[in-house]
Amino acid sequence: MPELPEVETVRRSLLDFVPGRKIVDVVVGDPYVLRGQPVDQFQASLRDQSFQDLERHGKLLFFPFDAQTLIVHLGMTGQLTLRRPDRADTRFIRHHHTGLQRTLQHPPDQHTHISLMLDDGSALHYRDVRKFGRVFTIPQTSRSEIIARFRLGIDPLTADFSPDYLAGGLRNRKAPIKAALLDQSFLAGLGNIYADEALFQARIRPGRACYRVRGRSLEALAQAIVSVLHQGLQAGGTTLRDFVDGSGQSGYNQEGLQAYGRYGQPCLACGDELRRSTVAGRTTSWCARCQK
DNA sequence: ACCTCGACCTGGGCGC
DNA sequence: TGCGCCCAGGTCGAGG
Fold this sequence. Notes:
Blueprint: H1 4-15, E1 23-28, H2 39-46, E2 55-57, E3 60-64, E4 68-73, E5 78-83, E6 93-94, E7 101-102, E8 112-118, E9 123-128, E10 134-139, H3 143-149, H4 163-170, H5 177-182, H6 192-201, H7 215-234, E11 275-279, E12 282-286
Helix pairs in contact: 1-7, 6-7
The structure holds a DNA duplex.
């Protein structure tokens, strides 16, 4: 589900409510998402701690506490949402046309694996159908140490990102350009949606070898990466199936996608039918006429 | 030091 | 209604 714009949307939506709140209880449903951390250790590390800040680098969320840092990666279907006592629960509603699952908030269900009970009666729930995500704590660690520990590259929405950085990373690779965009140790934050969107906007074929992306084309790509991420962020993220922000709200960037998932449909630039192929192991939509 | 591919999970949609 | 197959916003580790 969640690429940089979705994760940042979650972070921003939680920032309004969570800092200052104290964790009074830690409920673990399925310990699988702790990825090996003992349940009692996880619980003890968070109990009685107060939220200070929520940070993000690429797709990784991390929440610093006094002695611990809470790490959250949403994987493919992870949802981090606040259930507030001042709002009524709502049922899941499947949108007839889009299939979107909407709900503002609801009680924990069989997919709710972690619940942090807060001192104002609200609860921060981690729900993850496919369980590709992870939630655990590590001893208090600085931002730069976290980036190093999880081998994350430059976040494209920071000042560290530049056409030069992009050029330096692509020069010696012969893999498809899309593979480089998905490589989190090079660029942290792009996933399958925004990689396809950026390549479409920059008019570059997803299968083109990295070292062959140079000059104006590379400049266009650097610009397109930032542009598609900003667009996603402005739309509150892309909700294909189950993405929601911290309040349970869907995004609407799915309505602005020009390439991702549009194979078989006409290219919005030239009208040709968009192709479908597999690049870097992922389904890819692209226009054979526009993208060279 | 790359790169590709299968594995990890669950559920929805579709064809028969 | 049911079954089997394919598909899905992401990593990881094994093996070439």
